[in-house]
Amino acid sequence: MELFIIGFWSIVTIYIVYKLFRCIRIIPAQDVLIVERLGKYSRSLRAGFHILTPFLDRDAYYHTLKEQAIDVQPQICITHDNVQVKVDGVLYLKIIDPVRASYGIQDYRFASIQLAQTTMRSIIGTMELDKTIGEKDLINSTIVAAIDQASEPWGIKVNRYEILNIVPPKSVLDAMEKEKKAQITKRSQILISEGERDSRINRSLGYKEEAVNKSEGEKQRRINSAEGKATEIEALAQASAKGIESIASAIADQGGASAIKLQITKAFIQNFLNLAKENTEILIPADVMNLPTLISNLTENKKAAKP
């Protein structure tokens, strides 16, 4: 009997010590503990050291106030043009009211995932495949708005939703790849043709400018040549005039007639000697043998011509 009593009180003592030990709570930062007293909400314990009332208080829910990343499993969605795609993503949320997160819904994580998946299916069902792949940001923002509105009574805040993959069937992928290759080939051919066109235009413009430059150069060359010839003729004329004036002045001076007579005689004799050369033509007067008379007539004609 004594052993039974000792055993009983030993068990009671161990239980009391255990309950007293369980009343001590150390809460880390960014965590919160929901305490119930006699089955009813009592208080929320934040970071720090806390002691619960034995046999009356119990820790009902334990939450973290950090932002949580929840993986949304892949699901099959049907687009507006009846193409099945597999979509998965990640949901980012944060508890802002631990009490409502504990008593407003049974499991806020499961509810958020289910709401994200149903919203995803409904949005993709209104969009075609091309638009679905190209407008992920629109889908993400729509899902966030829908979940955030529905989760307000749950005490959570949905920050963002990110689609990880949108995977269409293999046949659709092959068709999209062929279409993309065709677009790239078409774009390259257009670029090549535009390059050839621009090259031909540039060459024709170059030929045009070259022809214009050549014509302008030829025109300027002819102008310069004509001006040079005119200047040359003018200079020769001026020189000839000065020469004639000098000769006339020399004839008018004393002894000028004798000098002219001597010069004409020398030129006549020199031309007469050239008759012996081959291919030489010269006009001579009929009385060539009467040289003194011929020279006298030439000099007299010169004097008569002088005013």
UniProtKB/TrEMBL annotation:
Designated name of the protein: Paraslipin
PANTHER family: STOMATIN-LIKE PROTEIN 2, MITOCHONDRIAL (PTHR43327:SF10)
Domain Band: 22-180
Topology of the protein relative to the lipid bilayer: Single-pass membrane protein
A Gene Ontology cellular-component term: side of membrane
Location of the protein in the cell: Membrane
Residue ranges of coiled coil: none
InterPro entries attached to this UniProt entry: Band7/mec-2_domain, Band_7, Band_7/SPFH_dom_sf, STML2-like_C, Stomatin_HflK_fam
SUPFAM superfamilies listed in its UniProt record: Band 7/SPFH domain
Highest classification ranks of the organism: Bacteria, Pseudomonadati, Spirochaetota, Spirochaetia, Leptospirales
Principal place of residence: membrane
Family per similarity comment: Belongs to the band 7/mec-2 family.
